[in-house]
Amino acid sequence: MSNDRLNFDRRTLLGTLGAGAALAVAGCVGGDDDDDHDDTGTADDDHDDEAQQLSEPTEFPEGESCAVCNMVTEEYPDWNAQLVKEDGARVYFCSSGCMLAYYADPEHFGGEGEALENAWVTEYESGELIDGQECYYVRVGDSDHVDDIMMMNPTPFAERDDAEAFIDELNDEFDAGYDHDADIITFDEFDMELAMMYRSRFFEDENGDHEYSNDHDH
To answer: 3-state SS of 128-167?
Structure first.
């Protein structure tokens, strides 16, 4: 074989090997970019899913008991309430009154002290779940005034005007003395005093005495 032929073959071989190595390196670099992109997308998707889970109510699980009174929550869709904590733990209730009691002292009902993320209650008029931290509650003080589950609850309304109209109806029908300013409250006013008004029997010890933690007086 001539030297010219040998040199040509060697150049061809080296060129082919060099091109292959370059493609392999490029492939590795490109693969890293794709992997990084996929990982980032997956992380973003997980974050979005987690945020959505904390911002929306869920279906009431079959057979799920109220965290306060142990009644099966799904059997009372006209009164249901639920909350979710920052760690994603979700708690279900038969009614707004039981949610109030739990919120006032979660440890008393087997909960932990994680910060609350969101809460939902069933609106009195529409029967739909609404934002429990942004709505208005009528502080109903007589079990004869509303045919409520558990006798009495703070009655939720999405709009303050509807809460005022409800008070006017109660005052007219029962000659009651509800006041727009004093008896329309918000979630920020949920505290132990209010919890005792609606669910005092669930804070009783075996002797019938009331015991609860003042540390959770919101």
So the answer is: CEEECCCCEEEECCCCCCCCECCECCEEEECCHHHHHHHH
